[in-house]
Design brief:
heterotrimer; A alpha/beta (268); B mainly alpha (212); C mainly alpha (275); A: Rossmann fold; four-stranded antiparallel beta sheet; 24% strand; globular; C: 275 residues; mainly alpha; MetI-like fold
Chain lengths: 268, 212, 275
Amino acid sequence: MNNKNKETTVNIEQVRPDAKMQSITLNAWFGSKQALKEINLTVEANAVTAIIGPSGCGKSTFIRCLNRMHELVPNARMSGQVLLDGKNIYSNETDPVQIRRRVGMVFQKPNPFPTMSIFDNVAAGLKLTGTKKGQNLDEIVKKSLQQATLWDEVKDDLKKPGTSISGGQQQRLCIARAIALQPEVILMDEPCSALDPVATAKIEELIVSLKHDYTVVIVTHNMQQAARVSDFTTFLYLGELVEYGDTRSMFENPKSEITEKYITGKFG
Amino acid sequence: MSRLLDIGLEQLTSIVLKMGEAAEKAVRTSIAGFMGGQDVSEQVSELSEMLVTMTVTVEDKAFELIVKYQPVASDLRIINSYMKIAYDFERYGRYAWDISLTHQRFAASRKCVHNEDLMGKIVDKTMHMVRKSIEALRDNNGEMVKSLAETENEVDKIYSAYLDILAETPLAAEDGICNLLVIRYLERIADHATYVGEAIYYIATGEKIILR
Amino acid sequence: MTNYILRKFKNRLFFILCAVCVVIAVIPLLSILYEVVSRGAPQLSINFITQKDADGGIGPAIQGTLILIGLTSVVGIPLGVLSGVYLAEFGNNKYAASIRTVNDVLTEFPSIVVGITAFGVVVLGIMGSYSPLAGAVALSFILIPIVARTTEESLKLVPNSVREAALALGVHKWRTTLSVVLPAAKGGLVTGTLLAIARIAGETAPLIMTVLGNAYFFQGFSSPMDALPLRIWRDSLQPYANLQAQGWGAALVLILIVLSLNIAVRMASRGRLRR
C-alpha cells in the first residue's frame, strides 16, 4: 500500500549555527556495547523536541550525552561532538560542571533532596553551585515555583520537607529546582511515567509554557504525549536515528516504514 | 500481530466497500432506466436510502475508532478518507435517485435525450469513473486519481458542449429542463468520483491533492 | 491420623521446637543481666562512681573508659567515615575492592593481636611507656574498619537518583557528597558509629597491654590508665569479697554505658522511621 520511495534517513553534515544544540556523528558505548550509532540531530531553540522509540533504543543515553551525564557511568564512553550554541561541549577546555548548569535535567522518578525543605530544594542548585552570591533567594525560589506552576500549592508550606508533597508536585518541584539555575536547555527523561493522568496533564501544560524561555528536549515512550507537547519529534530505533521532523508531519505521514510501524503500534 | 484497531478498520473498510457496490448499482440502474425508458425510481430510492444510513454508520464507526485508539499516520489517514469517500458514495446514490426521479417526472411526455451522441458519451464516461473509483478503493490504488482527473476533464467538456447546444436550440421548456438536470447530475457524479480518487491518493501518500 | 491432623501436629511440633530454642538462647542473657544487676546494684552510689580505688570507688575506671572512648572517637570516627565515603562514592575500581577486602578482614581481627601490635608500636616504640594514647590507637584499629564499613553501607543505601539530581544541577562531586549524600545517610551513619563505640567500650584485650590499668585518675599521656573492662578483670581475680563486689559494680556500670548507647541508637533510628 505504501507507494513511497523517499529517503528515509536524515543526515545533517553541516553545522547549523542557529540551532540551540546539535549532535554530530554521536556514538556512545557502555563497555563494548554500542548504544548510539552516528546520531546527527538538531535541537531547535525555544521549541520542544520529543525523542520516541521502543525500550532500549538509546533515548535516555542520548539525552545524557547532551549534558555530559553519560560519562559518569563506569565504562561509558562516547565519540563525536555535541554543540551547544555552536561550541562543542566535549572539547578538552570545557568543564562538564559548567555544561550541566546550562543544560538542566529532570528525571523519570521525582527525586527531590530528601533532607531539604521545599524552599531549600529549589534553592539547592544556587547554593551548592555557588551562584547565589548577590541574589535574592526568596525571589528566585518564588519565581521558579511560579514558573513550575507549583507556587500556589506550596506557598504556605515552603519549610515542609521536599518529600512531603505528592508525586506530581514533587516532579514540578524538581522542574522548579532545575529552572532556578536559569539553564538554557531543559532535558526531561520520561518525566511523567511515574505520575497519574491528572499530574501528567499539568506537567504537559507546563512543558508547553516553558518553551518560551527555554529549549526543551523530552524523552517519552508515550507517543500521544509526544504528539501533544512537541514541535519536533525524533524516532530512535536500535541506537540509530531513523526519522526526524516536525511533529504534525511525523504523526500524519511518516517518511520511514519503521516509523510508521512503530507509531501505529505494529511493533515495539 | 493484529492490533485492536485492525479489527475496527476491517469493519469500517467492509462497510465502505459495500457502500461502493450499492452506489455503483444505483448509478447503473438509474442510467439503464433512463436510457431504456423504464421507471426505476423505486429501486434506486431504496438503494439511496440505504446509502444514507450507511454513511451515518461509517461516521459513527470512524469516531469510535478515533475515540478508542487515537490513531496516527496511515490509520488516521484511512479513517479520514473513508469518511469522505462514504459521503461521496452517498452522493452517487442521491444523484442516481435524482436521475430516476427526473426520468419518472418527464420521460413519458418529453424527450429527455436531445443529443444521443453526447448523452451516450457522458453516460459512459460517468459510469466508467464510478467503476474506476470503486476499483481504486478496493485496490488502494492512489495512482488512479490521475486518470480519474483526466476523465473528469473530458466529462466537463462534454457537459459544456451539451450546454451550448441546449442554449442555442429552441426547445420546449420541459425538454430543456430534463436534459439539463440529467447531464448536471451525471457531471456531479463524475466530480465525486474524482474526490474519491483524491481521498485514496491521500491515504497512500499523505498529500492533499486537488485535481478538480 | 488424617493428613490434616498430621500436618497440624507437625506445625505445632516445629513451633514448639523454635520456641524452646529461643528460650534456651535467651536464658544466658537474662541470667547474665540478673547476676550483674543483683550483685552490682548494691555497689552503686555517688561515692562508688566518683571516688578513686583507695576511697572505695571506681571513678578512675569510668574516667578512663570515657577518655578512651573520646580519644578513639576523635581520631577514629573521621578516619572511618572518610574511608567509608571514599569506598562508597569513589570506590568503583580495583584498588577500592582490595581496600574493602582488607577492611573486612580487619573487622574480624582478634583484638588481642591488635593489642600486641599497639604495644609494640606505641608502648615500646613511640611513647616508651603504657599510655592512654596506645589504648586509643588499639581501639581505633577496631573502630575504624567497623565505622568505614557501616558508613559505606549507609551511603550505598542513599538512592543514586539523589546523586544524579545534584550532579545534573552542575554541583561538583565533592559538594554533592558533602551536602546531599551524607545528610541523607545521617541516620545510618549515626547508628553505625554508636554501635561501633558500644563495641569498643567493652574491649578488654587491647587495653591490657596498652593502658595496663591504674588505681588513680588520669595521670598524663605517658602513664597507665584505668578502664572499666580492666577494672572488672582485676577485681574478679582478687581474693577479697569486697573487691569482687566492686567488680560486679563496675560490670553493671559498663553494661549501663553500653545499654544507654544502644538506646540512643534506637531513638535515633526511630526518628528516621517516623520521617
